Amino acid sequence: MSERRQVLLRVDPAVHDALMRWANDEFRSVNAHVEMLLRRALADAGRMPKQAAPLPRRGRPRRHAD
């Protein structure tokens, strides 16, 4: 797996607050939500690199239904 890069992102406080609320609604961190949105935008524009690693699985493992 490749090394993940850190990026400093400056955004308007109101935009950050909206992102935080949206991420919380979907049980994600702001960082994970921004990455998901960027990946979606790249895919929609046909610019997603083929060599990009999938998003890492986060959170608790799912329970198996018995």
Automatic annotation (TrEMBL):
Renumbered residue ranges of the record's region Disordered: 45-66
Listed transmembrane segments: none
Chain intervals with Basic residues compositional bias: 57-66
UniProt record, GO biological process: regulation of DNA-templated transcription
Name recorded for this polypeptide: Toxin-antitoxin system HicB family antitoxin
Originating organism: Leekyejoonella antrihumi
